[in-house]
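hi! just following up on the protien thing from before. the input was this:
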Amino acid sequence: MRRPPPPRPAAPRGLAADEAKIHGANACAVTLRERPDAVVRAWFAESTARHWAEAMQGLAARRRAYHVVPDDELGLVAGSEHHGGVCLIVRKKRPVSIERWLTKMEKRERVCGLALEGVGNPHNLGAILRTGAHFAIDGLLVADTDALHSGACARVAEGGLEYVETVHCAHTGDAIRLARRAGFGILTTSSHGGEPLYAAELPPKCLIVFGEESQGLTKQTLKAGDVQVMIPGSGAVESLNVSVAAAVIVAEWWRRFRQP
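and the predicted 3d structure came back as:
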């Protein structure tokens, strides 16, 4: 008599409004370490399950369900072949309001916040989060904080979301107005004009504003800055990707104001 096939692992249930599905070895490892209580359920690939033994023990201790599944099964669960051997359902990290964030930054003399106007590509968002974590930025201001919780964004961010304060502000103009009132200098960015970055006077308490991938900042936002900068280069290509530009500019701010 033929044996019946083994039962298939439980597929991801519908996500609650405060839940997100993330994948990628580094992204998931950081979440398991930094916010273990936020993990709702986990899946691990058979081929790499031995590397996650400690994580499984921690999940079991917290009475969280986990499944060890074939690699192709995990691809279906994660919705991507680039899952890195693990997929988690987690409770989203809650953003703060811009008002609350500015209050927290009130007495600090050196602050670096990034504001994104229309940047929506998950790979760019993930790369910006990774840069933000590397240079310890103080806040990432976005209109749609849910966009930071996609699987692709989490994988590219390599866990960066766990180290960057996310700030909700529906309109870039409001972010600029409120930040300036709180003592921030506003740095706008463009590939077509402005002072060369390395010669520009950067404010130590700074909100750096980046625009969407194809068109950059709107004219209204660009003019609202106290300092407008461009990244000098060969001119062989029109501009840098927004995530690369963010890394270059934030690295220069770090060099001037935080480098040990």
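The first helix runs from residue 25 to 34.
The longest strand covers residues 39-45.
cheers
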